[in-house]
Amino acid sequence: MNRTAAPKTQVVPVGRQTDTEFFALFWRNKPARFGLIAFASIVLLVIVGPFVVPFTPEQIDLSAKGQAPSLAHLMGTDELGRDVLARVLDGGRLTILVAVIAVGVAITLGIIVGALAGYFGGWIDNLLMRIADVFYSMPALFVVILLVALIGPGFGSIILAISAFSWMTTARLLRASILSLKKSDFVQAARGLGATDLRLIVLHILPNALAPIFVAATLGIASAVLTESALSFLGLGFQAPQATWGGLLEEAQRAVISGGQWWRGLFPGIMIFLVILSVNFIGEGLNQAIQGRKEHTS
Q1: In principle, which of 73, 133, 162, 237 could form an S-S bond with 232, CB 3.0–4.6 Å?
Q2: Strands of 19-91, DSSP E
Q3: Are 3 and 188 in contact (CB under 8 A)?
Q4: How many CA atoms lie within 13 A of 57 on its CB side?
Q5: Cα 260 from Cα 227, distance rounded (Å)
Q6: Distance in angstroms (rounded) separating the CA atoms of residues 248 and 245
Q7: Is position 216 within any domain?
């Protein structure tokens, strides 16, 4: 009786308290707070913006082609008179969507691999970690470009290519957490009560080992945005007339160099910069909050 009651009275209240402290530590971090507000604002803007802007991304107006930013076109127009603001918002929605889905797939794969390696150990651990080492040893961007070139550009192929080289860090972080948690008293108590391996992993170990994964996920979004933008810039991403931030930068090359249309590359570049900066601030804030909570509870 006492053995089963102790974990309930000790673990649950402490977990709630440390979760509150975790969010307080994160919010007190000014760069992290700025990053969260900035990233949330950008996501809201690319979702709502296309319904507010009075132009569609593919709307051609030859009478307004090549115009600099003005009240009519806040980010100017391109060589076909298309509104750059509308194309930046539409492209941002696709770029961020691809990054989030690719990171979600990579995190899921990393959790599965890390959980199996950390919990079962032995030859399973060695095999899975050697596979991770093989993926680490490959030049990721080069192989991603090769995969997309072989499969062909498209939503699925881009997500597959990005996620295939983004799961290893998650797997290693989770494996390390599980190696320390699986010997904890609350895990041993649950095992003594007859909990299966699957129940131990999903209900008892994973909820206490996911904190570092959130850091990896936020940083993974920044990496995925860069990768998708690089693919689109090289012509291996989404094809015209579909806009993405990388594709807009590729379109802007000749316009900036030969036509002096500086706004064509400036605004997509600023959006990529802001997303990466804000996501990195969020990741650093999460990491510091995790370390602060560990110091408080130790």
Answers
A1: 237
A2: none
A3: no
A4: 19
A5: 27
A6: 5
A7: yes
CB atoms within 10 A of CB 246: 26
In a domain, 264, yes or no: yes
Tens of pLDDT along 179-215?
A: 888 777 777 787 777 777 787 778 878 887 777 788 8
Question: Cis omega before residue 241 (within 30°)?
Answer: yes
Sign of CA dihedral 107, 109, 112, 115: negative
pLDDT, one tens digit per residue, over 260-271 is 889 999 999 999
pLDDT band at 296; cut points 50, 70, 90? low
Query: Residue 289: which domain range?
Result: 2-60+71-297
> Are 284 and 271 in contact, with CB atoms under 8 Å apart?
no
- The token duo for 269 is 């570049």
Q: Is the confidence at residue 241, as pLDDT, over 80? A: no
Count how many residues are written for the chain.
Answer: 298
Total of domains in the chain = 1
How many CB atoms neighbour CB 2 within 10 A? 5
Residue 65 lies in a domain: no
CATH number of the domain bearing residue 145: 1.10.3720.10
pLDDT band at 7 (very low <50, low <70, confident <90, very high): very low
